[in-house]
Design brief:
Oligomer: single chain
Low-confidence stretches: 187-197
Helix content: 55-70%
Shape: elongated
Mean pLDDT: 83
Number of domains: 2
Structural class: alpha+beta
Distance between the termini: 29 Å
Length: about 400
């Protein structure tokens, strides 16, 4: 009996193909919008979180806003932070210079720091070495450059031992970073789908003491990074750092700010989750609108087929059979729209993925697809229940007398 009812419901759905398609359209748009928006939000969030993770997540970042007329100098920096809770500490300063090598000239983002910076950020070398403490002590004109910077100025990545002129001063390249390293500048890069047209940021790292001689804005330390001696005890390191800085800056907690990178990553993930839920909720409204469309058409269908209902009841069809048929019709329309919506969203995500390239992964999430199927099925049942119940409760005599 169930199979026969299903066949009758399918025939009724196929009897008016245009009307069925227009009814399905609301579900198709709703499902496609839900999957596409959530996939894009998840892809963008995962991309940002991945970049933050590659830069390191177990370190503290400190910004000094008020030096209390007693600037923090490099000579004091390492003594101040010589605590058992800290593993590595590194000051950071930045300026922009013009780099020249042969006939090649380009703007370079130049960072002044110490060897500990590379360890804190989890950077790896392609060739050469990192900065050493002796480089800071001797104000050496040495530098570590990114992979892209080496290729841009020297035509090859293996540039160890070469010299690069920065604002008229020769610096020897002692190390080249791995191509996969994510730095403060490269984290802001926007890549297109064509790798040859991606934005390349030139950057290099020199001893902080050397940078302070080149740039007037790096005479004192206003920002530095610090890693914990134990990765699972970031809170203890943060507490100790706050204690040290409070003593250094006259117990003024407004003079500096400490940012825990692991907390930033966690907050970012929470924001991504909230955004996905919000966009999913907005898209789900389209599905509800599609459900209202199904109810409307089913009510019209019940009215149009009043005599058919009367005849079926007159030959022995029960309320359950009539109700099941109309409920199956609503469910078929909803699920057919859902399947079409999934297909449309897959095609749209392929196009979006091709346009965005490798910068954002917009692959379809199976969990979102399953939720879309479940939600569409629920909408088909909920919005088909009233029309089906109305059809089942019609009296046979009144139905047979109905002339339309």
């Amino acid at each position: 009996m169930l199979i026969q009812t299903g066949k009758m419901a399918w025939n009724a759905v196929c009897a008016n193909k245009l009307r069925t398609f227009l009814t399905m359209l609301g579900i198709i748009i709703g499902v496609a919008a839900l999957i596409i928006l959530v996939s894009i939000a998840d892809g963008a969030g995962n991309s940002v979180s991945s970049q933050i993770s590659q830069m390191g997540s177990n370190y503290l970042s400190v910004q000094i806003s008020d030096n209390k007329e007693n600037p923090l100098k490099l000579s004091e920096f390492f003594k101040l932070l010589d605590q058992e809770e800290f593993l590595e500490e590194a000051p950071i300063g930045r300026t922009s210079v013009t780099g020249k090598s042969g006939y090649t000239s380009n703007s370079v983002n130049l960072y002044g720091t110490s060897g500990g910076y590379f360890s804190i950020m989890g950077m790896e070398l392609y060739s050469g070495r990192f900065l050493k403490q002796t480089d800071l002590d001797n104000h050496s004109y040495v530098m570590v450059i990114s992979y892209d910077t080496a290729v841009e100025f020297f035509g090859r990545a293996d540039a160890e031992g070469e010299y690069l002129m920065l604002d008229g001063k020769n610096f020897q390249v002692v190390g080249v970073l791995s191509r996969d390293c994510i730095s403060p500048s490269s984290a802001m890069m926007v890549k297109s789908s064509d790798d040859s047209s991606e934005t390349v940021v030139m950057e290099g790292y020199i001893p902080y003491s050397t940078l302070s001689k080149l740039a007037d804005n790096v005479l004192e330390i206003t920002q530095f990074y610090l890693s914990s001696a134990k990765e699972d005890s970031m809170e203890a390191a943060e507490w100790k750092l706050n204690e040290v800085l409070m003593q250094r800056f006259q117990n003024d907690e407004e003079a500096f700010s400490i940012q825990n990178q692991s907390e930033v990553l966690e907050a970012m993930e929470n924001v991504d989750h909230t955004m996905s839920l919000m966009l999913g909720g907005i898209a789900a409204i389209s599905l509800l609108v599609g459900g209202i469309g199904i109810m409307n058409i089913m009510l019209v269908s019940v009215t149009e087929r009043t005599r058919e209902i009367g005849i079926r009841k007159a030959i022995g069809a029960g309320q359950g059979s009539i109700m099941l048929q109309f409920l199956l019709e609503a469910l078929m329309v909803s699920m057919a729209g859902c399947i079409a919506g999934i297909g449309c969203s897959w095609g749209a995500l392929q196009v979006i993925g091709g346009v965005m390239g490798s910068s954002i992964d917009v692959s379809m999430d199976k969990t979102v697809v399953l939720l879309s199927v479940a939600f569409s099925g629920l909408i088909g049942i909920v919005f088909g229940l009233y029309p089906a119940n109305k059809a089942a409760k019609k009296k046979p005599i009144d139905a047979l007398r109905y002339s339309g």
